[in-house]
Protein 1
Amino acid sequence: MIAVDPTGRAQEFRAEIVIVGSGAGGSSAARTLAAAGCDVLLREAGEHHDPATFDQREETMLPRLYAGGGAQTTADQAIVVMSGRGLGGSTLHNTALCVPPPPAILDRFDREAGLPGGRAAVDAAVADVLLRFGARPMLAADENRSNRLLRAGAERLGLSYESPLHNREVCDRCGFCILGCAYNRKRHAVFAFLEEAVSPLPGCPPPAAQSVRSDGGCGAGLRPKAAVPFWKKIAC
Ligand SMILES: Cc1cc2nc3c(=O)[nH]c(=O)nc-3n(C[C@H](O)[C@H](O)[C@H](O)COP(=O)(O)OP(=O)(O)OC[C@H]3O[C@@H](n4cnc5c(N)ncnc54)[C@H](O)[C@@H]3O)c2cc1C
């Protein structure tokens, strides 16, 4: 893989495993493989965003955080497919609700296809992910008027309901989660999987969200554990 670093210098990288995309899936796979001793290169097409530059405006944040500026569709343009573009992928701008896989579904997967390592291993992996994302219960104070009305309506109709876990820390409840958390209160995939596992390329900034400038670059790569983040265009 040939990459161009922030100074425009071309560099060649070799790795045992190259993972494309640093979202929920790619970053957790990269960390797990790196922790198991593999030499992993994680490639990301988007920027490493600095939350301090998030302005809570749709016209600036959709083009920055979403593939196709938030207007990505299926080939026939019938369905909008919103997905993230940036280090951390869609976890940067998602709604921060953490819903573990329902036990009945895991049981069925296990019965019909066999879960890798068995149900106990998957339960342990789910617990690890929830811990890393900082998943926590929603407090009554976290509910807004719409939530309270929905709850009252469910109670009146005799419907069951529950509040999901969420991965915001000291949330100000501004309601702009899907435009990226300008207060950096969401424990997204960079916090959950990449920070501790990544070692920087000499001369390049580490991936701590606050410390990397947002520069409109269109590519980034980083190597968990054994080496290398860099934050500019990548050519393969
Ligand atoms: C608005 C919104 C709200 C959501 N709210 C929730 C929620 O509350 N709770 C929840 O559990 N889920 C939520 N989701 C869904 C959740 O965020 C996604 O399911 C999850 O992030 C998907 O993980 P992923 O790794 O498959 O992809 P993503 O997290 O989308 O990551 C994909 C990454 O791959 C990169 N990439 C793609 N192609 C290339 C390439 N060729 N080279 C290099 N990099 C590439 C992209 O730039 C992106 O960073 C929400 C999603 C959206 C859009």
Protein 2
Amino acid sequence: MQTIDIYTTPQCGFCKALKAKLDEKKIAYTSHDVTANEKELADMRTLSGGAMSVPVTVLNKGAEDQQVLLGYPDAVKALKLEEKEASKDEQKDTATLTCPKCGHKQKGEIPTTSCVPFYICGGCGETIKAQGEDCCVFCSYADKQCPLKKKDGDCSSGACKI
Ligand SMILES: [Zn+2]
């Protein structure tokens, strides 16, 4: 039987949408909150080859036919959750992130079909997490907000939706 492991954060709108689709179809999965402990984040990065954005979906984890799906559209497609194909990352936007620890500024790409709850600062090397209820580091530290926040106005109220 196929197993499904999803690496998520509680604030990620794409993760919520993916899980809602699985729930709707009564498909069982195991959810891993990468903000809950360092091990889950480390596992996600190992499995995905270093991805810092969620959701990361792993089919048949540890088996010979293990498959790792990055972001929302690929997971939806592989799990056949939607009739029509979900749109892929189109025009990725870039923003400047300012490290809250050392003030180092760096450019980051804002994905449109996944959520970036962490990044590694190029200045101090710290793993910087999104603040509080923010869904991603762009909401917390960038000069531009993520597309979900732009669309709904506020992600802190749980309004992040696709
Ligand atoms: Zn820094």
Protein 3
Amino acid sequence: MPTVDAQRPDGTPYPIAVSESTWQERLDPVAYAVLREAGTEPAWSGEYVDTKAHGVYSCRACGIELFRSDAKFDSHCGWPSFYTPLAGDAVVEIKDTSHGMLRVEVRCASCGSHLGHVFSGEGYATPTDLRYCINSVSLTLEPDGQE
Ligand SMILES: [Zn+2]
């Protein structure tokens, strides 16, 4: 069962509205389980955990640009980590009380797909002290060829 709502937390619809059957056709089963069923890939399993390449990470579901490699840092947590999204309105943040924890879920603001969670106040030496902990399988890196 998809667990992703049709509306943003503020009640406005996601601009990219695609039926679940279409998402199922477009996404491979692993990506579908994370993006549309709010799953989590196993730690250290994702293709972008240690990636240092320069470029932009876009939503694997809808293709909108979400994060820049400039904001990626080594969190040693097993998932790609960013200290900020590319733009404040690129993602939406939703309180998540599943698994007996209070966490803040991060979704694509354009298509509503699940990306990961954001944690604050962990003491990382980043400009924001935020860690956007994002599943590799939710993203597609488009390298721009710069160093
Ligand atoms: Zn998206």
